[in-house]
Amino acid sequence: MWLIKWKQKTKIKSAKTRTAAASGALPVIILSKESKYVEIMKYVFYLTSFVFFFFSCTSPEEYAKEQHRQDSLWEIQKTKMFAESNARQKAQDSIFKAHDSLYFEKFKTNKKAYAIYLKHPDWGTSACEKLAQRLIWIGMSLDMVKYLRGLPDHVNVSNYGNGKEYQWCWTGYTPSCFYGKADCIITAYN
After folding, report:
1. What is the per-residue pLDDT for 132?
2. Peptide bond preceding 60 in cis form (omega within 30 of 0)
3. Domain at 111-189, CATH from 3.30.1450, 3.30.565, 3.30.70, 3.10.180
4. Is the whole model's pTM more than 0.85, yes or no?
């Protein structure tokens, strides 16, 4: 009888958990492959340790002693895994730095883009190259448009229930109007 009640309780709990997860109430943690691997290895390690303790230890003192030994072994294993992970990450970083330095040397030859980059390094190299070609794209900042065109002739603010939305217009240019929110990122233009 108690087993049936326990199963019913767990079904209710799991249904509540699924409902809460579907509604977005529970936070979702996305782990990298390496951290998933570490968690799996930790689980396997502790599971085998438990089986060993269960069949080999006879007294609580022996159990505590063995638990301490297993914990120290796990710390050593974890240190090795993280050292390997750090070594792989450093190798990848050095490859990316070498690639970035080659790209940046090539980027310096584009004098217009490099001049923009020197004034606004936070915009990044690819955005500066686009600005040097006078390109316009969704996702650029209002400051980038101001760099190309100067201050807007008209600024219109509207609120349709989703917060303030802005329209920045320049006369004599095509496209003439740009749209965005308070973060000043262009979401549309015409």
Report:
1. 94
2. no
3. 3.30.1450
4. no
- Residues 6+ positions from 53 with CB-CB distance below 8 Å: 63, 66, 67
Query: How crowded is residue 85: how many other Cβ atoms within 10 Å of its Cβ?
Result: 15
In the sheet that 154-159 helps form, which strands lie side by side, from edge to edge?
A: 154-159, 164-169, 177-180, 186-189
Task: Name the token pair of 27.
Answer: 């936070």
- The pLDDT assigned to 27 comes to 44
Euclidean distance between CA atoms 151 and 157, whole angstroms: 16
Strand partners, 177: 169
- Taking 3-state DSSP, the helix, strand and coil percentages for the chain, each rounded to the nearest 5, stand at 65, 10, 25
Write out the two tokens for 97: 């730095």
Token pair for 41: 């290895």
Helix (H, G, I), strand (E, B) or coil at 177: strand
Burial 160-188 (b: 16+ CB within 10 A, else e): eeeeebbbbbbeeeeebbbbbeeebebee
Q: According to DSSP H, which parts of 24-124 are helical?
A: 33-56, 60-108, 111-119
